[in-house]
Amino acid sequence: MKLRHDFDPDSSLWDLIADHLRNDRESRGLSQDAVGGVIDRTRSLVSRVESGHTRLQAFHAAKIDAAWNTGGLYGRLVKFAKSGHDPQWFKAHEEFQAKSDEVRIWETSWVPGLFQTPEYASAVFECYGLSGIDKLVEARMKRQALLSRDPWPLVWAYVYQDVIESPVGGSEVMRAQLARLLELAEQPNITIRILPRSVGATVGRDGAFMLMATAKEEQAYTEASAGGRLTADSADVSSLRVKFARIGDHALPVDASLRLIRETMEKFQ
């Protein structure tokens, strides 16, 4: 498989891991099939890792370290890569989201970007003092093409009650935004549920995240104050999948959620 077009071991620790894995394998005279046998996966996955299209997972790194007696090198590299900032995270997030078949969203602060109206999105960008807001809004609206893609992706969104009650952009903007949520909720592939404030302490209060899946892979995006983090590590993804389910245990049913959105919309006069 060809290297990812922006593959750069000098600026990305993940790409350095991929490059080192390929060089290490070749110096040992091993095929990609042989490495696949070590990690109990196919040659195709090894090829995707070495070309930078898929990241080496922690439990695969541990198997390679044990088989090649590296002293834990790959495990340490993956650990450092996961904890560091990846300058390409947002582009990778966009690309994977666009091809996802399933999207699960938990949001604590804003209406999810996939659901935002242009006016609401503009108000969000303005509060951060960003420049070139028109282009940012245009880019966000283009990403929403995912919702009307053929075939439709399945989307589940859990939203904290404060999100629908906070007057972002003013009353008129909020009425239009809440109306947009109700419109989207009519689509058979989109589920929107509200987590009421009355539930008190819940596992989701520590931050928003998104789970995205294709037929072959699942990734998770978590928000952070200085930029998001994208991971395909199975342990991280599994942990967030459990968290999403636990948030759903306390979210209002669909009918009650939509009723609360309608009632809130009427308050923005």
Automatic annotation (TrEMBL):
InterPro entries for this protein: Cro/C1-type_HTH, DUF5753, Lambda_DNA-bd_dom_sf
Organism: Actinomadura rayongensis
Signal peptide annotation: none
Superkingdom of the source species: Bacteria
Domain HTH cro/C1-type: 21-64
Short name of one Pfam family: DUF5753
Protein name as catalogued: HTH cro/C1-type domain-containing protein
CDD domains: HTH_XRE
GO molecular function, one term: DNA binding
